[in-house]
Amino acid sequence: MTTAFILIALALIIIYAGPTLLFFCVGYADYMLERRRHMIALKHAVRRRSDEL
């Protein structure tokens, strides 16, 4: 009985919070891509500067 209650509660949470969870996932993915892009740019800048020395 307890397992069924937990499964029903999780299903309701997923159904009602689905758009919000999707929004968070997309936002986090965008943040990670932007951070990765920034780190690559930083790496290129450091490499360029070390070539000048």
Structure described in brief:
It contains one helix and no strands. The chain is mainly alpha-helical and 53 residues long.
Structure description:
The chain starts with a helix and ends with a helix. The chain has a domain at 17-52. The mean pLDDT is 87. It is an all-alpha fold and 53 residues long. It has one helix at 2-52. Keywords: Membrane, Plasmid, Transmembrane, Transmembrane helix. This is Transmembrane protein. The chain crosses the membrane at residues 6-29. It comes from Rhizobium leguminosarum bv. trifolii (strain WSM2304).
Shape: rod-shaped
Number of strands: 0
What do the pLDDT scores average to?
Answer: 87
Structural class: mainly alpha
Q: Any low-confidence stretches, pLDDT <50, length ≥5?
A: none
Relative strand content:
under 5%
Major pleated sheet: none
Radius of gyration over C-alpha positions, nearest whole angstrom: 22 Å
Order of helices and strands: H
Number of helices: 1
Distance between the termini: 71 Å
Helical content (DSSP H or I, runs of 4+): over 70%
